[in-house]
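Aim 2, interim progress. The first record below pairs a target sequence with its structure tokens.
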Amino acid sequence: MGARSASVGPPDQSRRIAERLGQLAPQAAGRSVIRVKQSQPEEIAVARRVVVTGGSGKLGKAVVAELRAHGWKPVVVDKVPHPDREVASVVADLRDLGQATEVLSTVDSRFRRVDALVHLAAVPGPGLATNSATFENNLMTTYNLFTSAIRAGVNTVVWASSETLLGIPFTAAPPYLPVDENCPARPESSYSLAKHLEETMATEVARWNPDLSLTALRLSNVLDETDYPRLADHQADATVRRRSNLWAYVDKRDGAQAVRKALEHAVPGYRMFVIANADTVVERPTAELVAEQFPDVPTTREFAGHETLLCIDKARRDLNYEPKFSWRDSLRGN
């Protein structure tokens, strides 16, 4: 006897049934579906369970607090547990692909699905480990998590890239000021080279996976209230912080704000944003600093007050990012 046809009803009806089943499949599998309308953020159906790698670090703890305050359910994945026992924590080595895959799918007694990933775990800067160790750790960890997110069906990924891709240390002058996302990448260390390759990898991974949202945040130097008193040491010599990052910084709470808003404004594809505070870490006006330190560099606008030289216009426009915390207010007790 010949094999029976598996079709049910006329072809048009079968097609409609198949389309309907396709629409219902993600919900039937128990996975949240993120629907994003960037122009109407109030209508976003936001994913709720988010894995935060590096969630026990300086920025990570601020991100966890920010996400919890806005209705998310963060699960910290780090080499050490989060200090707050009310925060779910999983200890893992993300250099291992198997462990990275597990933390984005199921960990018994913690969770059985993940809706989004915030990846902050890394050697956090150049010179903190050997060049090869920094490069291997940061690049492979990011590769493992991108791969694991795809396997687990986690379609929203936000991760920490770095301001260092803009040419830090600025021993050579930038092509223009303020520097922004259109400034050509110029890695000057094994750390920034790995970050550059992470961003390159993200463009291709997003191309392979059209439903995947990958957002790179080129975060400036993350500071908090314990760091601000030391900024007095940088006021006399303008070249100190120029070589670092054009006198820029980001308060950890504003960095956390940027992470949350990147999650909430996720769209398919790869995007990258420069994230800094609105001001610099020195008392001298920005226009005066530029005239003294970069007299021959073209500027795209006039600088008012202590305006940052790491341009955050794109993040303001696309993510509704607006820094709220300044080191100046902190030292004044505000």
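The second target in this work package is listed in the same format:
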Amino acid sequence: MIEIPHPFIDRMRELHGEQAVEWTKALPALIADCASRFDFSPVAPFENLSYNFVLRTKLRDGELAVLKASFMKEELAREVHALRAYEGRGSITVLDADEEWGVALLEGVMPGTPLSVIEEDALATETFCDVFRRLHLPAPAGQQFPSMKEHFAAIERYRERFDHPHEAAPLPESWVENAEECLAYLISTTGEDVLLHGDLHHDNILRQGENQWAVIDPKGVIGDIHFDTIQYLLNYEDRGGDCEQLLRSRIAIMTERLGLDARRIAMWGVARGVLEACWTIEDGGSDWNRGIEITERFAKLLD
């Protein structure tokens, strides 16, 4: 019987309330059912669980696999659809899944060390580009992935919430307007919609074997390929001590290796910073300055 860590239960209560706590109580039985149906032996949960319950398992043939169970079943289903679309392009393989149960059995990655272990930033960024180049494909027909407009909907909700005189809008108006203008321009001028990972950063790219890398945890969004550079650019941003210079260096590598447009990347960064600030406000936080700092840093690249 697998024991569910108490910090994970507390995290589920914080995110989703008592319904999610009840879900965690049912997890041991769900794991047992999955072990029987998918023919694996449970090993141990991963450390630092946050949004999903993730369990190391061993298959009948001795190979390692990962069982992922999510209270947010629709999000996990979208991840499964994205991984299946990416199959053969550098992502992990979905071994089995059940949308009704909210579970997916995923290929294990060995040794599984993340791209973040490469501290030489230019080398890490070049590796990112190699992964990026293989991954993307045109938007699959018939798949229900959110659009970029839907992905950025928190900015519209921010406008609706503060569109009256009784509640002061906290964010600097000029930056919200800039983000809206960038977003409108980028969406209207996207030449080809592709299936985006949506969260493609160092710790979602894992070493597989000696020289290969495997992508995990896609969100699945449809839109401009330039957007999928942003989350990488936001992670480990202080390597070398100068965030602005590191940002410029990374984008220079991306534009050279991938043929991307540096200005479009910068504009997506401006919009993404305001989106983060809006998410913070929606979650009840007050430290929205982090998002505005992102916006300001990317905006300097447009001068």
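The longest strand covers residues 53-59. This observation will shape the mutagenesis plan for the next reporting period.
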